[in-house]
Amino acid sequence: MTNKRSRLALLALALVATAPAQAQSKIDPDSIRSKMQWFSDAKLGIFIHWGIYAVDGIDESWSFHNRKISYPDYMKQMKGFTASKYDPQAWAALIKESGARYAVITTKHHDGVALWNTKQKHFSVVKNTPAKRDLLTPFYQALDKQGIKRGAYYSLIDWSYPDYPGFLKDSSRYKISDQPKRWQKFLAFNQAQIDEVNRLFKPDLWWFDGDWEHSAAEWNSAGIRRNILSLKPDAILNGRLAGYGDYDTPEQNFPVTRPQYNWWELCMTINNNWGYQPQDKAWKTPYEVITIFADAVSNGGNMLLDIGPKEDGTIPPEEVQVLKELGQWNKKHDEAIFGTVAGLPQGHFYGPTTLAKDSATVYLFLPGKVQGQIVVKGLKNDIKRIRVVGTPQTLPHKIVGKISWSPVPGLVYISVPEQTQDKYMTVLALELNKPLELYQGQGGLK
To answer: What 8-state DSSP symbol labels residue 445?
Structure first.
């Protein structure tokens, strides 16, 4: 992950984003939509940043790159990485409990330390730490048992590899134009590690990072995509492959308006850092995480929520608590979240909304405690019934301002009794007489 820049929009639309791959083969838009369907329905993923940086609780890779710590001192952390209490079954069970449909783990960060037994001559937790074992295989197997999709974070950058040109923030080893053969040597190594992860773990989703340091041509992004899909044609790639991905990934900061991409995902930490940092106490509350999640889903996106385990493999209790509370809320409101589509355009309701796929049910998300009435504008449909999702409660509604001679629909007012409200976010289901129809005019006779 990058902690120093906002992401540029890499994709105009997810379908357009895959267009460069047409150099290799003609892309069928229907097939892309087909493979993206599970991702669109999934809504929630759990991100896991785990590596040697958890030993001292410092910035993953960036701490030495930005000279907060020397590179030798950073790499000394390998001696303290034990994974002694690592329980992949418990991790997968917690992820399942959160309601997440996929999980993405750091197979290798920018520091170059692989969490699997790489056959390349480079660092790994198997060869260079007291953990002495492949940490990915049991985790992915545990995910399979829980029915959770496999995701693999992979850093294109490798600041430890001697043939990678970049190293520290203010220094580099060489220029590609000066030593092209050396760069080709790195590309061969990089592709070999990607092929290992692809062959050994067959990720459903690839989460690349670090593409900003080089162009698509320099990375051979087209070749990376082609090689991955040759083994697993339905694999999904995020947008950090210099234009060769399937969806966009805004980081940390929520977009104010709905992104223009077909598919997108907000990646976000529970506190302020990706990996375990004991001094970081800026924990987001369950309410904050739930409301951000609802906003993402309302805008047609997913949320990838990060946790940072300690070096021994235990997950901080604050993160466990957030995932459990999020899971309880998700379980109660499942129908309004998973498998839905983006909700009402702005102006029709002041809050997050989603739609059932048949567009005959509108879900309204009400953060906090509701005082007074809520209002829906421009609804041309008749409302058959209003339910408080997750409860047997139904609510009446009142139409205000409907004039018989005007095509403009009235305002829908709904009172939400306090005793029906959820402690975090109440959700109402408006069941309509037919697929949603909205009035978007300017009033009067039009």
So the answer is: T
Three-state SS string over 75-123 comes to HHHHHHCCCCCCCHHHHHHHHHHHCCCEEEEEEECCCCCECCCCCCCCC
Evaluate whether 116 touches 99 at the Cβ level (below 8 Å): no
Supply the mean pLDDT for the chain.
92
At residue 1 the predicted structure's pLDDT band, cuts being 50, 70 and 90, is low
Q: What is the DSSP letter of 251?
A: B
Q: What is the pLDDT of residues 121-137, one digit of tens each?
A: 999 999 999 999 999 99
For the chain, residues classed under CATH 2.60.40.1180 are 341-432
* Superfamily classification of domain 14-332: Glycosidases (3.20.20.80)
pLDDT digits (tens, 9 = 90+) for 286-316: 999 999 999 999 999 999 999 999 999 999 9
CA–CA gap between residue 378 and residue 194 (Å, rounded): 51
What is the C-alpha separation between 60 and 359, in angstroms, rounded? 44
pLDDT band with cut points at 50, 70 and 90 for residue 28: low
CB 152 within 8 A of CB 206: yes
User: Which H or E run contains 141?
Assistant: helix 136-146
Torsion angle, alpha carbons of 102, 20, 342, 327, to 10 = 10
Let me know the angle formed at the C-alpha of 151 by 47 and 34, rounded to the nearest 5 degrees. Answer: 120
Phi, psi angles (nearest 5°) of residue 401: 85, 15
CA gap 11, 15 in Å, rounded: 9
> Phi first, then psi: what are they for 379, rounded to 5°?
-90, 110
Question: What pLDDT sits at residue 20?
Answer: 36
Task: Provide the CATH topology of domain 341-432.
Answer: Immunoglobulin-like (2.60.40)
Least confident range of 127-141, 251-265, 429-443: 251-265
